[in-house]
């Protein structure tokens, strides 16, 4: 496999580790970007980007980054906090009055951001097309009763997070959530990242497919068993209501919509650039960065059925939890996306990391491919 791009000679071992991914015949395409102290030390890509294996992964190939999007969304909202337009500890209903229905009047913005609001899923079955109708989804969530007493537990909101936080963005910032994220986070840093992709960009989007035959780790198998055997459970509803959530990533309507929990499109360079921008203070002041990265939730996740640890819209390092470690420092923070893509920062090393793949793995939190690459990068720095 021919590896394209740039690498600093100190990181030749990381380049070799990236190349070794393609020893697996199922690996389709991937990219890796690492910045240290704001300087790019790795910017690599390889493989194929299309469905039929005819189109090479290119320098400007982008793809759906799934939940990597969530931290972009949280940072955008925290900018509004910094401007005095949103109070983290105010009721959501201050900005979105209809949200107060069904016992939610006291749920705070902070609780939404750290997955403690009790709204990871919608109970009433929704049609597939509801996924693409913002008002339908926002109304359903406004009418939803929490799955637990808000603030007393946490459960990851894989897709409802986008409508919940996005509706506050929409109401406070006066524009659609994708526009807000692009204006506040993407353009200032010059990132190739999109929430609501223009049709003119479709030609460079990688086709995403699942790897076969790998059942993943114990956490993945536990979640899959729940989803296969209990159709009304919180976990099942969170990932399958509307039923189009899991099957839409390559569809034009998915790319076009603005779902700021799950459908950001970008590349490894945009992930590393975003986290470098957080580390060097371009996006948030130190106080707000502290809020983003401070532990708000820790322990058994009622949705993912595994141990999670969250700040505000970012997943925090759990060095003693194998499926939840970024593989670098204890203060690392970021967000994995479904199937393997991930972006994170390690403040101790002033390091920003982005890895993307269009070969979906089955893991719930961190994918072993990203963890292995991070471990080699760490060794190159020592």
UniProtKB/TrEMBL annotation:
<protein>
    <submittedName>
        <fullName>Beta-lactamase family protein</fullName>
    </submittedName>
</protein>
<feature type="domain" description="Beta-lactamase-related">
    <location>
        <begin position="18"/>
        <end position="374"/>
    </location>
</feature>
<dbReference type="InterPro" id="IPR052907">
    <property type="entry name" value="Beta-lactamase/esterase"/>
</dbReference>
<dbReference type="InterPro" id="IPR012338">
    <property type="entry name" value="Beta-lactam/transpept-like"/>
</dbReference>
<dbReference type="Pfam" id="PF00144">
    <property type="entry name" value="Beta-lactamase"/>
</dbReference>
<dbReference type="InterPro" id="IPR001466">
    <property type="entry name" value="Beta-lactam-related"/>
</dbReference>
């Amino acid at each position: 496999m021919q590896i394209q791009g740039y690498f600093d000679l100190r990181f030749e071992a990381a380049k070799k580790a990236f190349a070794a991914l393609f020893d697996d015949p199922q690996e389709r395409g991937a990219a890796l970007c690492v910045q240290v102290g704001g300087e790019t030390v790795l910017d690599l890509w390889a493989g194929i980007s299309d469905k039929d294996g005819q189109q090479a992964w290119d320098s400007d190939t982008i793809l759906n980054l799934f939940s990597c999007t969530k931290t972009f969304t949280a940072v955008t909202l925290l900018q509004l906090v910094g401007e005095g337009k949103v109070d983290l500890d105010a009721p959501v209903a201050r900005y979105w009055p209809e949200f107060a229905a069904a016992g939610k009047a006291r749920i705070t913005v902070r609780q939404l951001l750290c997955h403690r609001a009790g709204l990871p899923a919608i109970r009433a079955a929704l049609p597939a097309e509801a996924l693409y109708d913002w008002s339908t989804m926002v109304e359903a969530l406004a009418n939803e009763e929490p799955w637990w007493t808000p603030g007393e537990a946490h459960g990851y909101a894989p897709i409802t997070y986008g409508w919940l936080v996005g509706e506050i963005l929409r109401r406070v910032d006066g524009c659609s959530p994708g526009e807000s994220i692009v204006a506040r986070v993407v353009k200032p840093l010059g990132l190739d990242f999109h929430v609501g992709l223009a049709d003119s960009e479709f030609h460079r989007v990688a086709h995403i497919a699942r790897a076969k035959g790998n059942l993943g780790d114990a956490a993945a198998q536990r979640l899959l068993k729940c989803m296969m055997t209990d159709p009304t459970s919180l976990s099942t509803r969170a990932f399958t209501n509307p039923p189009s959530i899991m099957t839409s990533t390559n569809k034009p309507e998915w790319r076009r919509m603005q779902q700021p929990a799950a459908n950001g499109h970008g590349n490894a360079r945009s992930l590393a650039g975003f986290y470098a921008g957080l580390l060097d203070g371009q996006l948030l002041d130190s106080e707000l960065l502290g809020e983003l990265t401070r532990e708000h939730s820790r322990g058994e996740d009622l949705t993912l059925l595994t141990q999670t640890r969250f700040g505000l819209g970012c997943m925090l390092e759990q060095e003693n939890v194998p499926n939840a470690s970024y593989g670098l420092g204890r203060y690392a923070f970021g967000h994995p996306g479904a199937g393997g893509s991930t972006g994170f920062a390690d403040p101790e090393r002033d390091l920003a990391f982005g890895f993307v793949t269009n070969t979906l793995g089955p893991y719930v939190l961190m994918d072993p491919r990203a963890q292995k690459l991070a471990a080699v990068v760490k060794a190159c720095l020592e």
